[in-house]
Predict the 3D structure of the following.
Amino acid sequence: MKILNKTEVLQQLCKTNKKYGMYISFSEDEDWAEIEKAAPYLTKDCDQILVDCEAWLLFDNGEEMHKYYDQTVGGDGPTKLNNYNGLAVVYALTCNPHGQLENENT
């Protein structure tokens, strides 16, 4: 048996599926409307509530993954694709199809 942490789950998902991936998480204490502003793709692309305020997203290519990453406002503040500057923060960590971690919006 092997126990994986959240980062290792992302790496294994990407390697196994040979896809780019992104892990996101946010505080359950934040207002959902504010979270949607910090990560607008959650409004249009997610048809179910994210369990425990986190998700793993898989992408067919790096360009698509970076588009979503650049829409995600984390601790670094507004991004080139999202000028949201409110209270909500959505953490994002990206990974390539080889299971190597790439970007993190701390």
In short: The chain has a mean pLDDT of 92. The longest helix spans residues 6-17. The first strand starts at residue 20 and ends at 26. Helices lie at 6-17, 32-38, 41-45, 62-69.
